[in-house]
């Protein structure tokens, strides 16, 4: 699973690198904004389609049983998410130091998309879970390198006063990528094509962006050597010295943990509990995601506007978290498909508001104004890490739940609800923000 909000770490990479004097442009180059949005859309379509739908069925096709497929899906997505977590900031930092005559960012964007396409082809043709695992790790690393380098062009290409507008345009590419991938898979039944076609789309859009991008060039090799210690040190903070920032990190981690496992195991939930065949499950996931994304698009701006108007952040973060909890509980006990779709919409309603208000809250508790980019990178870990941990431990929770009267997937979604509830409550440990 990819980092659902990679722009924070990518922005961190782009704003903490080696900047040439006067490199901030006077205006945004023509075609840059749609090009950046297109490459983000392509990468999200390619990466999140497997996470939402196709990876579960691919693994099911090469596994001996549903129980084995559940465990293997958790392993593949969990390990892959760790590669995404490391590759995104690492590629961004390295692109800051790239002295290629083709520019600082373009080699990473083009190279990453081509390597990723090869990885998708490997997954599509694989008959072994270990080939799928290695190829998915390769895909996560390479495609997150594309995201990091592409989004790091923002401070290179866009004046400070226009960056919010450009970021807003790019921000909508995540739900559009999810919906586009779900829609595409409805018309593809072959495993190979389910992975390669989205990969081709991502690669094509990356190539177009590379062709239109007037990339910045670094003329001289950086004199300071980049060490492993420097890389990991950039994403460390002291929670004792900065407790509000620490509680903000934990709140985000817990709520996102409750959110992260929803999509991953929904295909298995639909086929096991409701007896849907593969095509019916894919169609249901598309409708559920449409409902969730529509709710997110309403609640994200509304939550931010209301929290600004009342001058308060914590109550809105808590309310958003509690709405997600209600959706998770309803999902856990859904008696029919209609209820499941309603539950997904409720979860999306809470998640959209949480993500917008939580980010506003986070900007008010950053430890050091001079290290804003680094601290946003730390917060991005709280977003990305649950996407690795949740799928990894999910099979054990589902297996345990299967031995109880609740059932495996009901237990898993209730566990997510409890974790999200803890995050919604702990936001009140933050004392420096109302």
Describe the structure.
This protein is an all-alpha fold and 434 residues long. The two termini are 34 Å apart. The chain is built from 18 helices and no strands. It has helices at 7-15, 32-62, 66-96, 106-125, 129-151, 154-157, 163-171, 173-185, 191-212, 228-233, 243-264, 266-273, 278-310, 314-332, 337-363, 372-384, 386-402, 408-426. The radius of gyration is 21 Å and the shape is globular. Helix 1 (7-15) packs antiparallel against helix 16 and helix 17 (386-402) crosses helix 18 (408-426). It has 2 domains: 1-22 and 30-234, MFS general substrate transporter like domains (Growth Hormone, Chain: A); 237-434, Growth Hormone, Chain: A, CATH 1.20.1250. Residues 35-434 form the Major facilitator superfamily (MFS) profile domain. The chain crosses the membrane at residues 36-57, 69-87, 108-127, 133-154, 166-189, 195-213, 249-270, 282-304, 316-334, 340-363, 384-406, 412-430. Its main location: membrane. It is a multi-pass membrane protein. It is found in: Cell membrane.
